[in-house]
Amino acid sequence: MLERTIIQQRGFRNIVANGAVTGFQLHLRNPNYRGIAGSLIDGVEIVIDGETYAPHQSRYTLQGRTFTLEELRASTDVRWQLDEDAVVTVATPGGLTAGTHHIEVAVHLRRPYIPEIAGPSVFRAATTGTIVPTANTKGLKFGVSLYSYSGDLYTSMTLKDAMADIADLGATGIEILGEGNIPGYARPDTQWIDTWHTLLDQYKLTATNYGAWVDTAMWRDRDLTVQEGRAQLETDLRLAKELGFTSIRPKFGVISPELDPHPIWQPAVEQVLDLAAELDIVICPEIHSPTPIKHPVTQAYLDFIERTKSDHFKLLIDTGIFQTAPVDDGHEGFEGKKRPPFLEPLAVPMSDLADVLPHVHFIQAKFFEIDDQLNDLHIPWNDIIDTLHTAGWNGWLSSEYEGRREPYRGRDQVRRQHALLRSLLLA
User: What confidence category does residue 337 fall into, taking pLDDT thresholds of 50, 70 and 90?
Assistant: First the structure.
């Protein structure tokens, strides 16, 4: 599925030949109301950060074939269909710098059924796009949570679009929310499961973490029992295994403002540890703002690890706990002027993270906004990356965008985060 804007975020990249960056590419949607023959394309003028690239400087790829502008004008058997993008490749030594760029395009089309007196048909668009650099990951593994695309997924983008976006970033992991992203949860049909595995193979993605819930206050007149909580965990563990995941985040209902989980969590989890070991899935409770690392909730998880000696129960860290500035954009579902507690800066020190890293299996790289200069306005990524690198931690960092939900914004912000993180690794 193509993005609504003419300029597509996916596919904006530098191109490399024989180890050298030789230019950049843009993918464009046909702005017309009908498909046209390639010979009717009169070229695309591109302006990047004020620098103009004339139509004849580019190569144009349609339906898998690449043309100069003169060759395209003379073509007789290639088309630009409405459901297919065109790739415009601009040769410029060194390409574009990593980071966010202002992009303008003017797509020139000839339309024989419109008289010349009406003037040429020119379709203009402008946006920002982000070049994600290729970098040595220094042992870290990068993925994306589908939560980042909330509001877009299944409306303006398909599951295939999401996987294509993740692969386009150079990321290799995909995190999902079971009840949020699986049609027909908790019993998806076999066709969806087959499609899921086909797409994982197509985009060379690894299923990383599966988000699950144990809604202890599901009913108004009573809480879930231990056995009911265990049954929910078993359901999600088995479905996670069927989809290829290696860890699961169970979110139990809470009983305090500091996110103390319902007391059934310990006996329910203990009863499924053998199943988790059999399926080789790690159960990872989440340390999420407003709960810091030095807190009884976290300590109870660490005590559980020590008592059970299980290799299939570890911690998941949400980087929102390191937030250093408040988030004032609000949050879906919360009304009133008071900022929700989890949007207040908790500023957990890096020393606390270093202390628990031996027990951390997965990190959700929570963030809210990254500006045009690749500055994260809330999360201290340089400190986090340094701490992980110093400790030799080599697990998954999974992007979890939780900012404003305008259409396509999550896709753009995830690209910015990956550009920021890769740039830090190059420094």
Answer: low
